[in-house]
Amino acid sequence: MESPLADILAIAAHRDDVQQTCGGTLLKMRSLGISTAILDLTRGEAGTRGSAEDRGAEAAKAAAILGVQWREALDIPDGRVENTYENRLKIVDVLRRVRPRVVILPYWAGRHPDHSNSATLGYEACFLSGLAKIDTGTQPHRPFKIVYASLYADVRPSFVVDITPHIEERHRALMAYESQYANQGTGSGLFVPEEEIRERTFSVARHYGLLAGVRYAEPFVQKETGLVEDLTMLPVQSM
Ligand SMILES: [Zn+2]
What we know:
Largest sheet: 7 strands, mixed
Number of strands: 7
Shape: globular
Helix content: 25-40%
Oligomer: single chain
Bound molecules: zinc ion
Strand content: 5-15%
Strand order of the largest sheet: 3-2-1-4-5-7-6
């Protein structure tokens, strides 16, 4: 199937990562008329709860709620996301088909090695994707911008995105992962009860919102220094 183009591609290790770290931002971008897509690097077969098939169906449901144009999962083994040339090429192929201007990657340090490895792997794939000599049968394409979703990282964000009007929809997208989040016996000592998920995710969004004087927000880190044209138009009040 021919993939549609998207302005923004969010890449993450696991099928419920994007909903947690930048789902509100994808909803916000869609509301601005900007097209979005999601690439999950793994299919979730190593999860305590649910099968890869369950998670595939849930990912599609969440994608529909988030209004993304395109979502696909690669076949990189869950729990073994490694920065290999082979894996980089798999992502290059997607980048050249989707041709995003902006790529969202997980923050490069984190508890789960799949997340930090995805950041490095994704970054290197974005670089390789721009090289004409790497022939994947598709035209080279290098994204203009990479930003890192830093919700779970203990770092000061470079900026936050106001997701206030989209917080309920984001929650619905996350709860589409019934095999992971609905109350059940399997892994009940390991997983947060459903009622608590709402409180936790809303509190985190509230925390990031407060940093910029809005209600709910999602945080991002960019490696580049920002560029300002007009000092009088800078957002976020100082005091
Ligand atoms: Zn994850």
